[in-house]
UniProtKB/TrEMBL annotation:
<dbReference type="InterPro" id="IPR017896">
    <property type="entry name" value="4Fe4S_Fe-S-bd"/>
</dbReference>
<keyword id="KW-0408">Iron</keyword>
<feature type="domain" description="4Fe-4S ferredoxin-type">
    <location>
        <begin position="2"/>
        <end position="29"/>
    </location>
</feature>
<dbReference type="Pfam" id="PF13459">
    <property type="entry name" value="Fer4_15"/>
</dbReference>
<dbReference type="GO" id="GO:0046872">
    <property type="term" value="F:metal ion binding"/>
</dbReference>
<dbReference type="GO" id="GO:0051536">
    <property type="term" value="F:iron-sulfur cluster binding"/>
</dbReference>
<keyword id="KW-0411">Iron-sulfur</keyword>
<keyword id="KW-0479">Metal-binding</keyword>
<protein>
    <submittedName>
        <fullName>Ferredoxin</fullName>
    </submittedName>
</protein>
<dbReference type="InterPro" id="IPR017900">
    <property type="entry name" value="4Fe4S_Fe_S_CS"/>
</dbReference>
Length: 61
């Protein structure tokens, strides 16, 4: 289980995170966001690839 925080001030909307992680998506108004919370298996990889370091992942039990 992950809690994901995406810094909207840092996000550029490049979509790399959404390509890596099925649960993330990008919208023109909010940029990157969690679209499907049950599909975040690759969210740590998405955080690692984000060029702006905009994704914070907190792992919960
Ligand atoms: S990879 Fe980072 S900068 Fe790119 S859309 Fe995702 S959160 Fe935004």
């Amino acid at each position: 289980m992950y809690t994901v925080k995406i810094d909207g001030d840092k996000c550029l909307g490049c979509r790399l995170c959404a390509i890596v992680c099925e649960g993330l998506d990008v919208r023109s108004d909010v940029l990157a966001y969690v679209a499907e919370p049950d599909k975040l298996d690759n969210v740590k990889e998405a955080a690692a690839i984000c060029p702006e370091n905009a994704i914070k992942v907190i792992e919960e039990n």
